[in-house]
């Protein structure tokens, strides 16, 4: 599991980036260090205990890669390919995703609370025991996915598709749903507030 | 430190194993089940379960205890002095346990039940039934609910924002997220309405980004 060590910069309470004693803001040679991380992420397939809080990623191809116990809190992922990747015990809280293809992904016991997703395609994924509480999602596809025991408590979902999904024990309580499509899904086994449900 | 998460389909409850990176003596939290999958996970990591922490003496947290005790000679910790006929070290409010290299702080919540304990190991909290991601604890009355909201406010939400929360049921969470979004705080009128500044852009840290955008449409 990733370590939450504080940055060595005076009075900074942010967490260090993997391989450094400093947070992403106070990296002495930011470009060089992020370059090393980029090489590492493209060369290897299996990653454990990485701390990549607040690191911005763009255009990376992580398809088929495996991440266990990693932290991406506050990070920004744009124009990424995550198809077939696997994330276990990973934390993406308050991260921002845009234009991400994440088809056939496995997410097990991960957290996305307070994250923002825009144009993210999770089609055909296993999203089990995932915390999507207070997620802001727009133009996203969760279709043909297994969302067993995942939570969207207090989430704001706009133009989101959950077509043909397993929604057993999935919670949408307190969420705001706008143009959300639950066709062919077992939404009767999910939890909704009566007032928030807009079939 | 490594964490193994195991979900019991029968109990809808979570069991956790935490141990050193390279194997050795490990802690198991809430033995709701001990099936082949969990045993394989323990053995694959070369762990020996030496200590068992029980967050609440309810069946969904205990059903695997008898089997576990047949396999491992583990020491038990809970609010009660006996659990399923096994002697148990009693955990009192504010107890600090030194279990091998792990320092464990115990926090009791009699507002929920007289046997309810949350265990903190570093910045990880195993909170059992105390709360579940985004949701308040299940309580029997509005009075208990109100008491729990106050107790959590005074003794739980005071912990650091980067604390990782591993509940007895449901997905994991982050303390910051729970402080902002948990319905127990909303019901007590304590939710944060203004999220301005919450999403500090990583781009503010500098122009560097890992990789280059390929201008691909998804």
Which CATH top level class of chain B fits? Alpha Beta
Strand order of the largest sheet of chain A: 2-4-6-8-10-11-12
The total of helices of chain A stands at 1
CATH architecture term of chain A: 3 Solenoid
H/I helix tally of chain B: 6
Name the shape of chain A in a single word: elongated
| Major interchain interface with per-chain residue totals | A-B, 60 and 45 residues
Number of domains of chain A: 1
Which range best describes the helical content of chain B: under 10%, 10-25%, 25-40%, 40-55%, 55-70% or over 70%? 10-25%
Cα gyration radius of chain A (Å) = 17 Å
Detail the poorly predicted runs of chain A.
none
**What does the average pLDDT of chain A come to?**
93
Class per helix and strand makeup of chain B: alpha/beta
CATH class of chain A: Mainly Beta
Got a strand count of chain A? 12
The CATH homologous superfamily of chain B corresponds to Ribonuclease Z/Hydroxyacylglutathione hydrolase-like
- Cα Rg of chain B: 19 Å
Tell me what the structure shows.
The complex is a heterodimer of chains A (199) and B (218). Chain A contains one helix and twelve strands, in the order αββββββββββββ. In chain A, strands 2-4-6-8-10-11-12 form a seven-stranded parallel sheet, with no helix packed on it. Chain A has one helix at residues 30-43, and strands at 46-48, 56-58, 66-68, 76-81, 86-88, 96-101, 106-108, 116-121, 126-128, 136-141, 156-161, 176-181. Helices cover 7% and strands 27% of the residues of chain A. Chain A is mainly beta and 199 residues long. The radius of gyration of chain A is 17 Å and the shape is elongated. Chain A has one domain (47-189): Pectate Lyase C-like (3 Solenoid). Chain B is an alpha/beta fold and 218 residues long. Mean pLDDT of chain B is 86; it is low at 193-207 and 212-218. In chain B, 46% of the residues are buried. Chain B has one domain (2-201): Metallo-beta-lactamase, Chain A (4-Layer Sandwich), CATH 3.60.15. At the A-B interface, helix 1, strand 2, strand 4, strand 6 and strand 8 of A face strand 1, strand 14 and helix 5 of B.
């Amino acid at each position: 599991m990733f370590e939450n060590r504080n940055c060595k910069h005076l009075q900074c309470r942010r967490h260090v980036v993997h391989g450094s004693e400093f947070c992403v803001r106070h990296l002495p040679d930011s470009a060089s260090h992020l370059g090393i991380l980029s090489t590492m992420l493209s060369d290897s397939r299996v990653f454990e205990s990485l701390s990549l809080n607040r690191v911005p990623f763009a255009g990376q191809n992580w398809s088929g890669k495996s991440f266990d116990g990693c932290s991406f809190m506050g990070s920004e992922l744009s124009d990424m390919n995550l198809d077939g990747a696997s994330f276990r015990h990973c934390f993406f809280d308050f991260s921002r995703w845009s234009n991400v293809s994440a088809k056939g992904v496995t997410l097990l016991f991960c957290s996305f609370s307070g994250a923002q997703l825009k144009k993210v395609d999770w089609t055909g994924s296993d999203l089990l025991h995932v915390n999507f509480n207070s997620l802001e999602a727009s133009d996203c596809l969760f279709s043909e996915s297994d969302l067993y025991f995942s939570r969207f408590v207090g989430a704001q979902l706009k133009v989101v598709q959950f077509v043909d999904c397993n929604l057993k024990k999935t919670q949408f309580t307190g969420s705001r749903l706008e143009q959300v499509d639950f066709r062919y899904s077992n939404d009767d086994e999910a939890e909704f507030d009566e007032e928030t449900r807009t079939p | 430190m490594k964490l193994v998460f195991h979900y019991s389909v029968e109990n809808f409850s979570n069991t956790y194993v935490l141990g050193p990176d390279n194997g050795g003596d490990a802690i198991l939290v809430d033995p709701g089940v001990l099936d082949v999958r969990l045993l394989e996970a323990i053995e694959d990591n070369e762990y020996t379960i030496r200590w068992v922490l029980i967050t609440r003496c309810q069946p969904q947290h205990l059903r695997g205890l008898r089997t576990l005790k047949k396999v491992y000679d583990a020491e038990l910790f809970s609010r009660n002095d006996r659990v399923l006929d096994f002697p148990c070290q009693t955990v009192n409010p504010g107890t600090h346990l030194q279990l091998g290299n792990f320092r464990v702080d115990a926090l009791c919540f009699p507002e929920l039940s007289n046997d309810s304990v949350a265990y903190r190991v570093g910045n990880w909290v195993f909170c059992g039934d105390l709360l579940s991601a985004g949701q308040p604890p299940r309580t029997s009355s509005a009075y208990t609910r109100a008491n729990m909201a106050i107790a959590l406010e005074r003794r739980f939400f005071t912990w650091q924002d980067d604390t990782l929360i591993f509940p007895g049921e449901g997905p994991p969470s982050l303390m910051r997220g729970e402080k902002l979004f948990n319905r127990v705080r909303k019901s007590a009128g304590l939710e944060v309405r203004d999220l301005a500044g919450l999403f500090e852009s990583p781009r503010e840290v500098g122009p560097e980004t890992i990789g280059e955008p390929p201008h691909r449409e998804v």
